[in-house]
Amino acid sequence: MKSYEVNFDGLVGPTHNYGGLSYGNVASQSNSQQSSNPKEAALQGLAKMKALMEMGFQQGVLAPQERPDVAALRRLGFAGSDAQVIERAAKDAMPLLVASCSASSMWVANAATVSPSADTRDGRVHFTAANLNCKYHRSIEHPTTSRVLGAMFADQKHFAHHAALPAVAQFGDEGAANHTRFCRDYGQAGVEFFVFGRSAFDTRYPAPQKYPARQTLEASQAVARLHGLSDDGVVYAQQNPSVIDQGVFHNDVIAVGNGEVLFYHEDAFLETDKMLAELQARLGKCGGNFQSICVPRAQVTVEDAVRSYLFNSQLLSRADGSMLLIVPEECRGNERVWQYLQSLTSSGGLIREVKVFDLKQSMQNGGGPACLRLRVALNQTELAAVNPGVIMTAPLYGTLTQWVDKHYRDRLSENDLADPQLLLECRTALDELTQILKLGAVYPFQIN
Fold first, then answer.
1. Any residues with CB less than 8 A from the CB of 203 and at least 6 apart, and which?
2. Which of 26, 213, 259, 397 could form a disulfide with 247 if both were Cys (CB 3.0 to 4.6 A apart)?
3. In this predicted model, what pLDDT tens digit does every residue of 160-180 receive, in sequence order?
């Protein structure tokens, strides 16, 4: 039976803004308080989805969240009508209003960790929504994320959904941004690669000194248990604390993998040789041939990687066996990175082509091509069981671009977040979107 890696891209929400909320994310902080363009952001993301679909890749879409999150503000003591809650938050605690308006759910690499049926004990595809408890503005996402994923992957015969891990520091879970799967074929058993920044209980593991390590070893281990993964099918590795302190807040900022290939920076991990040997041995038991591409620090520095998001790219396997790398425009703007990519593709190695996409609106807020997609490996039967409304087609692309043009603003500043009309615009848009994507009632305003 044929199997696929389906990329479900996050649709950028109507409140896309540059709040500078993510400490440790260089781009997020450096562009704080600038005016954003939600319409352009959403259209840039949709253009990438359409392009990958037209290249022959299976492509889906994942809906954004309701923002501002008035219910979250009510839990923090703001009372009255929805408009009054927003007005009082703007007057008394503007940072909380900004956090409640974050459109960071667009980066669905953080939505969940996904294990394909070929790896799990019960033969179903498993999803665990990420608690994202390191940042308040992201910690409020997982209830809606769970409902949206449940509406997309509803057939319990094929799909299993787990609640987010306990929302405490010891189980900080950032989802698929720290998870990669290696396999010979998407439908065959593979090796799931969990990368953590620190251990909550074991002091033998070093921790970064400047920026927080968001993913814990204990969270990764818990997800592996929930998904019913075998010990032989899992490898754990620690991120290099020094690169976290240079702005590598997730592993997908310094490494990306797909199929049998890991593309990574020389400084990405601790005990790299041991990790590579373990991946090679375990994938070999699955019939695979693990291969790695190391980018030397002498050619591309960690700073270059963070500024360009070279590794926050999509590494895609094509039908002819070659690999395609999807990178943001910022890679072309960095001389060292672009020179490296030209030499990489001209060498006749594993990665044969690089395609560049303009994702400036997302990049300025700290997320590149890899942040915008959640990878789900599905066989033909499972793909047929996915809610068809979320699978990208040419007609759906046309409908969604019209929807964005109708509902999104082309400029948004911090002061605009205090406008109660923005909440009404968002709810109107999302109510229509759930009908377009056939999701049913998934948002609080539709349920309460």
1. none
2. 26
3. 999 999 999 999 999 999 999
Residues noted as catalytic: 174, 250, 371
Alpha carbons 432 and 399: distance in angstroms, whole number: 11
Task: State the DSSP H helix or E strand holding residue 196, giving kind and residue range, or none if neither.
Answer: strand 191-196
- Domain limits of the chain? 3-67+102-447
- Whole-number Cα distances in Å, 302 to 182, 310, 325, 340: 24, 10, 19, 14
pTM of the model: 0.95
> pLDDT tier at 71 (50, 70, 90 boundaries)?
very high
Dihedral sign, CA of 174, 4, 356, 63? Answer: negative
Annotation: CATH topology of 3-67+102-447: L-arginine/glycine Amidinotransferase; Chain A (3.75.10)
pLDDT bin (cut points 50, 70, 90) of residue 33 is low
DSSP annotation of 262 reads: E
Burial 123-136 (b: 16+ CB within 10 A, else e): ebbbbbbbbbbbbb
Mean pLDDT (whole number) for 34-39: 89
